[in-house]
Amino acid sequence: MAKRLMPTLNRVLVEKVLPPSKTSAGILLPEKASKLNSGKVVAVGPGARDRVGNLIPVSVKEGDTVLLPEYGGTQVNLGDKEFHLYRDEDILGTLHD
């Protein structure tokens, strides 16, 4: 990636994870069965400020796998990759193994 995008305020840059289209045994999965709105956090902003001016940090960190809403976010193309920008409060949760 030639450019590095650093989000501002409480925004999070996410690269969506593409679910597998077939199983390890070679069975093709229908598109609906493989639909999971998740992504990997690539970059995070410093956080937002409250009314007093105190910094409220972002709740996720780079490398986290997060659950995303079905709609929303801003699509950003950097080079040949597609990313999405979300506000911290729009992210539904983090996924752990």
Automatic annotation (TrEMBL):
Molecular-function GO term, any one: unfolded protein binding
One family name in Pfam for this protein: Cpn10
TM region positions: none
Answer whether the UniProt record assigns the keyword Chaperone to this protein.
yes
Keyword Cell membrane carried by entry: no
Keywords, ordered alphabetically: Chaperone
InterPro entries hit by this protein: Chaperonin_GroES, Chaperonin_GroES_sf, GroES-like_sf
GO cellular component assignments: mitochondrion
Biological role: Seems to function only as a co-chaperone, along with cpn60, and in certain cases is essential for the discharge of biologically active proteins from cpn60.
- Can you state the subunit structure given in the record? Forms stable complexes with CPN60 in the presence of ATP.
List, alphabetically, the PANTHER family matched.
10 KDA HEAT SHOCK PROTEIN, 10 KDA HEAT SHOCK PROTEIN, MITOCHONDRIAL
Family classification:
Belongs to the GroES chaperonin family.
The entry's protein name is: Protein groES
